[in-house]
Design brief:
alpha+beta, about 30% strand, binds calcium ion
Length: about 110
């Protein structure tokens, strides 16, 4: 079988490369602006502080619940559904899409 550019790309995707041995894959480094051939080259491109909220929900074993959000505590929109209960607390972490000055989360049991 003759090697082609297409087979080369398949090979590369099955066996990711880390030429400089720093533990970061070549494509990841290139997309973050660091050199894939210099282990000392590091990028802060992928380090970020993302504000969010953690919601802890007391769940019934075998039950399902959903999480809703609102900006006015009157009109609610489903954020996540079909959350399986385990008889204990289930935690969900939501990154803020557009938090605004007021943002509410609540959990409800599915009927
Ligand atoms: Ca590397």
């Amino acid at each position: 079988m003759r090697a082609t550019a297409a087979t080369g790309s398949i090979f590369a995707s099955r066996f990711p490369m880390d030429t400089d041995g720093d533990g970061f894959l070549e494509g990841f480094e290139a997309s973050g602006g660091s050199s894939p051939t210099l282990a000392q080259s590091m990028s802060d491109e992928f380090t970020a502080i993302r504000p969010g909220r953690e919601l802890s929900i007391g769940t019934a074993m075998g039950g399902l619940c959903r999480v809703e959000y609102s900006t006015n505590a009157q009109t609610w929109t489903t954020r996540e559904t079909e959350i399986p209960g385990n008889g204990e607390t289930v935690a969900r972490f939501y990154f803020d899409d557009a938090p605004g000055p007021r943002y509410f989360l609540r959990a409800r049991s599915n009927p």
